Amino acid sequence: MGEIRVGTASWTDKTLIASGWYPPEASTPEQRLRFYARQFPLVEVDATYYALPAEQTASAWAERTPAGFSFNIKAFSLFTTHPTPVKALPTDLREAAAGESGKSRVYLKDVDPAVTDQAWERFLAALEPLNRAGKLGAILLQFPPWFPISRANKEYIVACAQRAAPRRVCVEFRNRTWMTPDNQEETLGFLASHQLPYVCVDMPQGYPSSIPPVLAATSDLAVVRMHGHSDKWDSKDIYERFGYKYSAGEIDEWAPKVRELADSAELTQVLFNNCYSNYAQVNAQELAARLGELRPADRQLGQPRVALLDDLQVPPALHAVYPAQRPDALDRTQQGRFAAGVGGGDHIETAGAGQHVGHVRQTRNLLGDGPRGPADRDAQPGSG
Description:
Blueprint: E1 3-8, H1 14-19, H2 29-39, E2 42-45, H3 47-50, H4 55-63, E3 70-74, E4 84-85, H5 91-98, E5 105-106, H6 113-126, H7 128-132, E6 136-142, H8 151-164, E7 168-172, H9 184-193, E8 199-202, E9 214-217, E10 221-226, H10 238-242, H11 248-262, E11 267-272, H12 279-291, E12 305-306, H13 332-338, E13 346-349, E14 356-360, E15 362-365
Parallel strand pairs: 1-11, 1-12, 2-3, 3-6, 6-7, 8-10, 10-11
Antiparallel strand pairs: 4-5, 9-15, 13-14
Helix pairs in contact: 11-12
């Protein structure tokens, strides 16, 4: 059973700062990040969705966090076919991105491929300080409600992963066609065949962007994002969309599900994205407690290891992004330090293809088929 790491999708949100979760002495961005990194071993950066990151910012993140801490990075909106304000691009790329029409926001299909290439190059270059420090986790590719299952979209996902390589990506869908009962096997088989981690989600159901809470490990990294269950999921106000605090009972229900998922991966990341006030931080701490923060010397074989800050001087294998440093390249002694074992599973075939495509270690739908939302054309643009 692999390692489990729990964190949140923000440490800078204004409502979090106002909530009092940070102690009074954590009054600057640097102090807040240092404090956060003493509570959790993992964080997700969503600001990179809205603008390309700066290398000096990534350097500061690396310097302010302990060895073994990791940052998951949300991909820039342009890369995942979301609408992108031209002003979010570097100054020297804006004129070419806007084109002759002078649009204020653009989609990937509107942009000269040379501009996209430059944006990718600068995005990845800015992450190098984290990469060099062994603190770059996975790059989150969150695709929008208007990105349905298709051959072309599968090819695009693979192309994004190839651009990012050897850095890791993980894939989250917001179009229900990927995970309908008829398509789940095909989708998970496709991801497994390319060793691309599927991002499992807990989110409101019945909307165009709703994805059922299927737990599946399609690579040696498993990722779960907890979005909450706001009854205002279609709101354009992010605090209404994500203003949901999980109850103690819900956390109790999720703990064994996460443990079960960890049977099937070397590393399982759980990120709370219910970022309003201190909701995400409190829920993440509650889940970590339920999972049992057992030190390696105390735990029995077969129990999941939940990362503790005291353990972080030795980074887990999957924090390194280069293949030579991943668990399959470690000797047996090293593997034993990083994971208690890997669960088994069934080989599956892509629906209709009759071709073996990979090893999906675990698949579980926590709601059954789930209710279906209205037509995808009514989906609201947005992120989260």
